[in-house]
Amino acid sequence: MLVYHSLKPVYTKKAKVLILGSMPSVTSREMGFYYAHPQNRFWKTLEQVYQEKIGPSKKEKIAFLKKHHIALFDVLKSCDIVNSSDVSIKNPIPNDLVSLLNKTEIQAIFTTGKKAYELYKKFCYPVTNRDAIPLPSTSPLYCPKGIEEKLKEAYTQIRKFTD
Protein backbone atom coordinates (compact mmCIF):
# COMPACT_ATOMS: atom_id res chain seq x y z
CA MET A 1 0.00 0.00 0.00
CA LEU A 2 1.34 3.44 -0.94
CA VAL A 3 1.97 5.50 2.19
CA TYR A 4 2.95 9.17 2.39
CA HIS A 5 4.97 10.54 5.28
CA SER A 6 2.53 12.60 7.31
CA LEU A 7 4.73 13.80 10.18
CA LYS A 8 6.62 17.07 10.19
CA PRO A 9 10.29 17.00 11.10
CA VAL A 10 11.11 18.06 14.65
CA TYR A 11 14.07 20.44 14.80
CA THR A 12 15.38 23.83 15.80
CA LYS A 13 18.09 25.89 14.16
CA LYS A 14 20.43 24.81 16.98
CA ALA A 15 19.92 21.06 16.37
CA LYS A 16 23.25 19.23 16.46
CA VAL A 17 22.04 15.67 15.75
CA LEU A 18 19.56 14.31 13.23
CA ILE A 19 17.99 10.94 13.98
CA LEU A 20 16.31 9.29 11.00
CA GLY A 21 13.97 6.34 10.88
CA SER A 22 12.85 4.78 7.62
CA MET A 23 9.10 5.54 7.60
CA PRO A 24 6.61 6.12 10.45
CA SER A 25 4.91 2.98 11.70
CA VAL A 26 1.15 2.51 11.44
CA THR A 27 0.83 3.46 15.12
CA SER A 28 2.99 6.54 14.69
CA ARG A 29 0.92 7.67 11.71
CA GLU A 30 -2.30 7.11 13.67
CA MET A 31 -0.98 8.88 16.80
CA GLY A 32 0.65 11.69 14.81
CA PHE A 33 4.15 11.40 16.26
CA TYR A 34 7.38 9.44 15.97
CA TYR A 35 7.98 6.11 17.72
CA ALA A 36 4.45 6.04 19.16
CA HIS A 37 4.05 2.27 19.48
CA PRO A 38 3.99 1.54 23.23
CA GLN A 39 6.50 -1.31 22.83
CA ASN A 40 8.98 0.74 20.80
CA ARG A 41 12.06 1.38 22.93
CA PHE A 42 13.12 4.68 21.30
CA TRP A 43 11.91 7.06 24.02
CA LYS A 44 12.86 4.69 26.87
CA THR A 45 16.37 4.42 25.44
CA LEU A 46 16.75 8.20 25.25
CA GLU A 47 15.55 8.42 28.87
CA GLN A 48 18.33 6.02 29.88
CA VAL A 49 20.98 7.78 27.80
CA TYR A 50 20.14 11.25 29.14
CA GLN A 51 19.07 10.02 32.61
CA GLU A 52 15.97 12.11 32.29
CA LYS A 53 12.28 11.27 32.29
CA ILE A 54 10.42 12.10 29.06
CA GLY A 55 6.73 12.78 29.51
CA PRO A 56 4.19 10.82 27.47
CA SER A 57 2.77 13.71 25.47
CA LYS A 58 3.90 14.86 22.05
CA LYS A 59 4.60 18.31 23.52
CA GLU A 60 6.87 16.86 26.23
CA LYS A 61 8.77 14.73 23.71
CA ILE A 62 9.32 17.71 21.43
CA ALA A 63 10.54 19.77 24.40
CA PHE A 64 13.03 17.00 25.27
CA LEU A 65 14.33 16.85 21.69
CA LYS A 66 14.72 20.62 21.48
CA LYS A 67 16.42 20.84 24.88
CA HIS A 68 19.02 18.31 23.75
CA HIS A 69 19.42 19.73 20.22
CA ILE A 70 18.08 16.60 18.54
CA ALA A 71 16.23 16.73 15.23
CA LEU A 72 13.92 13.86 14.30
CA PHE A 73 12.67 12.86 10.86
CA ASP A 74 12.56 9.91 8.46
CA VAL A 75 14.48 8.99 5.33
CA LEU A 76 11.39 8.43 3.19
CA LYS A 77 8.69 10.79 1.98
CA SER A 78 6.64 7.92 0.54
CA CYS A 79 6.83 4.23 -0.28
CA ASP A 80 4.79 1.10 -0.73
CA ILE A 81 4.81 -0.66 2.64
CA VAL A 82 2.88 -3.48 4.28
CA ASN A 83 1.79 -2.34 7.75
CA SER A 84 5.02 -1.20 9.47
CA SER A 85 7.38 -3.74 7.97
CA ASP A 86 10.62 -2.17 6.74
CA VAL A 87 11.47 -5.32 4.81
CA SER A 88 8.34 -4.79 2.69
CA ILE A 89 9.34 -1.28 1.51
CA LYS A 90 9.16 -0.83 -2.25
CA ASN A 91 9.23 2.23 -4.52
CA PRO A 92 10.89 4.49 -1.92
CA ILE A 93 10.97 8.25 -2.47
CA PRO A 94 13.33 10.10 -0.09
CA ASN A 95 12.59 13.20 1.94
CA ASP A 96 14.48 16.41 1.15
CA LEU A 97 17.10 16.29 3.87
CA VAL A 98 19.35 18.94 2.33
CA SER A 99 16.94 21.75 3.16
CA LEU A 100 16.65 20.48 6.74
CA LEU A 101 20.43 20.25 7.08
CA ASN A 102 20.82 23.78 5.70
CA LYS A 103 18.45 25.15 8.37
CA THR A 104 20.32 23.60 11.31
CA GLU A 105 23.71 23.11 12.92
CA ILE A 106 23.57 19.33 12.53
CA GLN A 107 26.97 17.74 13.08
CA ALA A 108 25.96 14.08 13.02
CA ILE A 109 23.28 11.98 11.37
CA PHE A 110 22.09 8.73 12.95
CA THR A 111 19.71 6.14 11.51
CA THR A 112 17.52 3.83 13.55
CA GLY A 113 17.72 0.34 12.16
CA LYS A 114 19.33 -1.41 9.24
CA LYS A 115 16.72 -0.43 6.63
CA ALA A 116 16.87 3.29 7.47
CA TYR A 117 20.66 3.15 7.09
CA GLU A 118 20.47 1.30 3.76
CA LEU A 119 17.89 3.75 2.41
CA TYR A 120 19.92 6.73 3.61
CA LYS A 121 23.11 5.43 1.97
CA LYS A 122 21.33 4.73 -1.32
CA PHE A 123 19.12 7.82 -1.67
CA CYS A 124 20.32 10.56 0.68
CA TYR A 125 24.09 10.23 1.00
CA PRO A 126 24.66 10.96 -2.72
CA VAL A 127 22.82 14.27 -2.23
CA THR A 128 24.00 15.26 1.26
CA ASN A 129 27.55 13.87 1.08
CA ARG A 130 27.26 13.35 4.83
CA ASP A 131 27.80 9.97 6.42
CA ALA A 132 25.27 8.48 8.79
CA ILE A 133 25.94 6.38 11.86
CA PRO A 134 23.66 3.33 12.06
CA LEU A 135 22.00 2.56 15.38
CA PRO A 136 20.08 -0.59 16.28
CA SER A 137 16.35 -0.55 15.70
CA THR A 138 14.13 0.17 18.70
CA SER A 139 11.08 -1.29 16.95
CA PRO A 140 9.28 -4.15 18.68
CA LEU A 141 9.37 -5.97 15.31
CA TYR A 142 13.17 -6.01 15.14
CA CYS A 143 14.29 -5.49 18.71
CA PRO A 144 14.42 -8.63 20.87
CA LYS A 145 13.76 -8.52 24.60
CA GLY A 146 16.83 -8.13 26.75
CA ILE A 147 18.55 -5.70 24.37
CA GLU A 148 18.10 -2.60 26.54
CA GLU A 149 21.77 -2.34 27.58
CA LYS A 150 22.95 -2.75 23.98
CA LEU A 151 20.55 0.00 22.86
CA LYS A 152 21.68 2.34 25.63
CA GLU A 153 25.34 1.77 24.72
CA ALA A 154 24.72 2.42 21.01
CA TYR A 155 22.50 5.46 21.54
CA THR A 156 25.02 7.00 23.94
CA GLN A 157 26.94 8.08 20.81
CA ILE A 158 24.31 10.79 20.35
CA ARG A 159 25.38 12.53 23.56
CA LYS A 160 28.86 13.20 22.18
CA PHE A 161 27.28 15.78 19.89
CA THR A 162 24.56 17.19 22.13
CA ASP A 163 26.33 17.79 25.46
Helix and strand topology:
Elements: E1 2-4, E2 17-21, H1 26-31, H2 42-50, H3 58-67, E3 70-74, E4 76-80, E5 90-94, H4 97-102, E6 108-112, H5 114-128, E7 132-135, H6 148-155, H7 159-162
Parallel strand pairs: 2-3, 2-6, 6-7
Antiparallel strand pairs: 1-4, 4-5
Helix pairs in contact: 2-6
Using brief descriptors, characterize the structure shown.
163 residues; alpha/beta; Uracil-DNA Glycosylase, subunit E; 4-stranded parallel beta sheet; 3-stranded antiparallel beta sheet; 7 strands; 20% strand; globular
Short summary:
The chain has helices at residues 26-31, 42-50, 58-67, 97-102, 114-128, 148-155, 159-162; strands at residues 2-4, 17-21, 70-74, 76-80, 90-94, 108-112, 132-135.
Describe this structure in words.
With 163 residues, this protein is α/β, with parallel strands linked by helices. Helices cover 36% and strands 20% of the residues. The chain has helices at 26-31, 42-50, 58-67, 97-102, 114-128, 148-155, 159-162; strands at residues 2-4, 17-21, 70-74, 76-80, 90-94, 108-112, 132-135. It has a four-stranded parallel β-sheet. A three-stranded antiparallel β-sheet has the order 1-4-5, covered by helices on one side. Helix 2 crosses helix 6 (148-155). The model has no long low-confidence stretch (mean pLDDT 90).
Percent helix, as a range, is 25-40%
The biggest sheet amounts to: 4 strands, parallel
Structural class: alpha/beta
Number of distinct helices: 7
Please tell me the overall pLDDT: 90
Domain count: 1
Radius of gyration: 14 Å
Give the overall form. Answer: globular
Which fold does the CATH topology refer to?
Uracil-DNA Glycosylase, subunit E
Number-wise, the strands total: 7
Order of strands, main sheet, comes to 3-2-6-7
Beta-strand content estimate: 15-25%
Which CATH first-tier class would you pick?
A: Alpha Beta
Question: Any idea what the CATH architecture is?
Answer: 3-Layer(aba) Sandwich
